[in-house]
Amino acid sequence: MGNQAFIIRLLGTLGNAYRHMNDYGQAIACQERSLKLACESGDRRGEMAAVNNLGLVYKAQRQTDKAIAMEELALDLARELEDRAVEIQVLKNLGNAHYALGQIDRALFYYQERLAVVRGLGDRRTELQILKTLSNAFYSMGDMDQANDQAQARLQLAKDLHDLSAQEQTLNSLATLQLAAGNLEGARTYSQQRLVVATALKDPEMVDEILALLNSSCYAMGDYGQANDYQRQRLKAS
């Protein structure tokens, strides 16, 4: 069994190497051989690795339907083996695959499943990433309320983690959402908060960009005094 397990993993490694070389025929041959041996020997982890690797080959070939079929098998095996790390990665792969096909509802299902697993593990950094993905997906669907809710949740988590970069990114997203909704005042509020964070990050280019946005938005709102103030701040900083 030990020698067989070594061969199974060696074939998987070779298959991955061929995939990186864009030799997809050889990659598939290696992974299918690895899968066959794993199934014959009852090596469930080897089986999980092989179907996951096959999914990656099909993804690289843009055969998304085949990639999804393999990833679904990998997901079942990951759950059977209670391998949370693989489960989290496969759920991401499935969400991204459905998103690429324009199946946003299905993508959201897998992203939300991934979020539940990550929260169960207390992995707040990965949760931060998933909330961003969810917000973007809801935005793609035109569901601004849900996009905003996910972004708000991400902002709070970023504050809890004292992650200034994530705060800045999320405040930018929230300002964009407000602009899309035609709420200039709301966009300005988030941009002002973003300016505070950018200043704390000591990023002069970002500060200048935000001041320019605030200058433009204030002019659009007819608040010329505030617009001129932001322009003076830009000149002072330059």
Folded structure, characterized:
The chain is mostly helical and 238 residues long. It folds into 2 domains: 1-122, Serine Threonine Protein Phosphatase 5, Tetratricopeptide repeat (Alpha Horseshoe); 128-238, Serine Threonine Protein Phosphatase 5, Tetratricopeptide repeat, CATH 1.25.40.10. It contains 12 helices and no strands. The chain is elongated, with a radius of gyration of 23 Å. The relative contact order is 0.05.
User: What Rg do the Cα atoms give?
Assistant: 23 Å
Poorly predicted regions: none
The CATH topology of the largest domain, please?
Serine Threonine Protein Phosphatase 5, Tetratricopeptide repeat
Any idea how many domains? 2
Mean pLDDT: 95
Number of strands: 0
Class per helix and strand makeup: mainly alpha
Number of helices: 12
Query: CATH first level of the largest domain: which class?
Result: Mainly Alpha
User: Beta-strand level of the residues, as a percent range?
Assistant: under 5%
Feature tags:
238 residues; mainly alpha; Serine Threonine Protein Phosphatase 5, Tetratricopeptide repeat; 2 domains; 0% strand; elongated
Helices and strands in order:
Layout: H1 2-20, H2 24-41, H3 44-60, H4 64-80, H5 84-100, H6 104-121, H7 124-141, H8 144-160, H9 164-180, H10 184-201, H11 204-220, H12 224-237
Helix pairs in contact: 1-2, 1-3, 2-3, 3-4, 4-5, 5-6, 6-7, 7-8, 8-9, 9-10, 10-11, 11-12
Q: What is this structure, in a nutshell?
A:
It contains twelve helices and no strands. It has helices spanning 2-20, 24-41, 44-60, 64-80, 84-100, 104-121, 124-141, 144-160, 164-180, 184-201, 204-220, 224-237.
